[in-house]
Amino acid sequence: MAEAGRPLVRIRELKMHFPIHAGLLGRRIGEVKAVDGVSLDIIEGETLGLVGESGCGKSTVGRCVIRLYDITEGSIAIDGADISRVDQTSLRRLRPKMQMIFQDPHASLNPRMTVAGIIGEPLDEHLALSREQKLARVYELMDAVGLHRAFARRYPHEFSGGQRQRIGIARALALNPKFIVCDEPIAALDVSIQAQIVNLLEELQEAFGLTYLFISHDLSMVRHIADRVAVMYLGKIVELADRERLYADPAHPYTQALLSAVPEPDPEHERHRRHIILKGDVPSPANPPRGCNFSTRCPRVMDICRQIEPEFLEVSPGRFTACHLHGTTAQKNGEQQPSTTQLTH
């Protein structure tokens, strides 16, 4: 799927640095490099999984992509429209194309509004519909996400976590978006409900031709839903590849460590697996290490890793990684840093 379509979302050298202020005068003494040079393409109709440890910058990337933050540097284009620096008035006109499903369905819903009011709010903001047309659209969306129409007059506190997330999904679909950022949409739900929500997202994607950026720390669920997977560490993408290839043969040492922590359902196979235990803590994004960000914890670290930041290179067709273990080989073969078109492979 990823090879056949066109890029709907193009992200180039995205940076999001949050200032650190201190002292009585509130002087700027530094910055937190939450996202520090991310380049990605998301193909129309695909699900791109974005994984990594907590605090690596995954959610910040998602919020930057739909311009909930004013980015520090870089460019973002959605469906051919560059939204990197547009003003809020222009951005408001582009909002129907891009929506977000938030992690906590309880915190993201207004407790004073009914289900009909929550789902219908985007319609009030962007469309001029009559009361009857609006209610018909609300009912249509409730049907799509599996909510009974009789629930339209109820309030969020009357629902379970899974039902609240369905309300959030219905709200995100209200304006027929092309692109949806799913920011850990199942993290706050019971395990028994998580599969239902993921299956619903897949059904909606097929029915409405949606494109997802699926952010999660649950590697098993990402393997189920994603077409390609990007692995993030300390504000940077360290590996990007097709789902099956990445899970079967991870190239970056950090990806290898992440996947080694995923339990296998077969007890016999799990007993003989090699687990990679990373030593030390994740460095502060306010003071990242010199060279490779992963050099302080990498079990295969070399001298060059502590001195020079590795380039994000295509080490095999469709597989990109930022690691000197593979970068040296790629350079010997005459491969260069990925171009705009290469990132879509």
Notes on the protein architecture:
- With 345 residues, this protein is of the alpha/beta class.
- Helices cover 31% and strands 23% of the residues.
- It contains eleven helices and twelve strands.
- It has an eight-stranded mixed sheet with strand order 6-7-8-3-9-10-12-11, with helices on both faces. Strands 2-1-4-5 form a four-stranded antiparallel sheet.
- Helix 3 crosses helix 4, helix 3 (115-126) runs parallel beside helix 5 and helix 5 runs parallel beside helix 6.
- The model is unreliable at 329-342 (pLDDT under 50).
How big a fraction of the residues is strand? 15-25%
Q: Give the proportion of residues in helices.
A: 25-40%
Could you state the order of secondary-structure elements as H and E? EEEHEEHEHHHEHEHEEHHHEEH
Average pLDDT across residues? 89
Per DSSP E runs of 2 or more residues, the count of β-strands stands at: 12
State the separation between the terminal residues, measured CA to CA: 10 Å
**What Rg do the Cα atoms give?**
21 Å
Number of helices: 11
Low-confidence stretches: 329-342
What is the 3D form?
globular
Q: How is the biggest beta sheet arranged?
A: 8 strands, mixed
- Structural class, by secondary structure, is alpha/beta
Strand order of the largest sheet: 6-7-8-3-9-10-12-11
